[in-house]
Amino acid sequence: MTAAISQPEVNEPLVVSYPDEDAALLLERFREWGYLFLKGGLTAACCSKLLKQIMAQLGPDIVYDLSQKPTLKGTPVAECDPLWDRAYPKIQSLEYFHSFFHMTEVVQLMQLVCGPEVFVYPMKMARIATPLRIGFETPPHQDAHSHNAPRNMAGIWVALHDVCEGMGRLKMLPRSHQHGVRKVFEAQGVGGVQCEIFPDENVWHVSDVQCGDVILFDGCTVHKAEANTSVEDVRISVDTRFCVHGTPVFSTNLHPHHGWRIDELDWDYVYRDWESKDYQYYWEDYPELF
Q: Which pTM value belongs to this model?
């Protein structure tokens, strides 16, 4: 059984917000649309630093071109491919990859929709979308289902470089959070499931993004990735989930991303070369784990 979409899909631009707008207005916009698209939410410098560290783990198949864009020069990969599995533990073990989401600038963006007390999920995700793997992109889904999360969990997605049409942009289904958690169906692509799309939901929001742009989205907001249809451009982004501190968090979110299926990928492996212990096991005394 598959989820049917009865009307042709229509794209409209993401509703633009800026981090220095009035906080009450931003929260109202988030509650209306189910997301905030924050132009220049983070500095290009901090995003480029993380991208450089991730890129160092991906050669020789993915390298910088002359304009410093991630470029496919070898075998295309999709999440869970053997080549991806070999590189991903090295990315997960980057200290800056994890501490990035605890930086003051990032937490302040999370506070726009969660209030002053934020809990950042231990599971951090890096996304690598190469060309020539059409059909393996992330299907429409809700994080409230995939993370077994309560209502006030949200996600943060960060563009580590400029991403234009054809590179696998992130698409949001506006106001979809208003219908709660939906039924899911088996689907090809990251996660293996897609959620129900109602017949009248054919308008999606998507835009080109620049390095440092940020999308915050409600846990019930339906979102998906476009296919990377480019010749050689690779889209690399990072994301995690967060919630109001004290909200119940399901135990699977306390493991490294894909640690459940890659044997070596546990926290001992991730932390083995870290210089600081600031963000190691910081969730162990969290009051609401289930």
A: 0.95
| Residue 75, number of CB atoms within 10 A of its CB | 14
On whether the CB atoms of residues 235 and 228 are closer than 8 A, the answer is: yes
Residue carrying structure tokens 């207005």: 25
pLDDT in tens, 180-234: 999 999 888 777 889 999 999 999 999 999 999 999 999 999 999 999 999 999 9
Whether 285 is covered by a domain: the verdict is no
Q: Closest Cα to residue 17, out of 1, 33, 5?
A: 33
Q: By the 8 A CB rule, do 139 and 189 touch?
A: yes
> How many structural domains are present in the chain?
1
Q: Which residues contact 64 (CB under 8 A, 6 or more apart)?
A: 55, 70, 71
Domain that holds residue 166: 15-259
**From the CB of residue 147, how many other CB atoms can be counted at a distance below 10 Å?**
19
Nearest to 15 by CA among 181, 215, 179, 201: 215
DSSP assigned state of 100: G
For residue 96, tell me if it sits in a domain.
Answer: yes
Residue 198 lies in a domain: yes
In a domain, 4, yes or no: no
| Biggest distance spanned by C-alpha atoms of the chain | 53
* Whole-number Å distance between alpha carbons of 188 and 136: 6
- 244: domain CATH number is 2.60.120.620
What are the tens digits of pLDDT across the range 109-146? 999 999 999 999 999 999 999 999 998 899 999 998 88
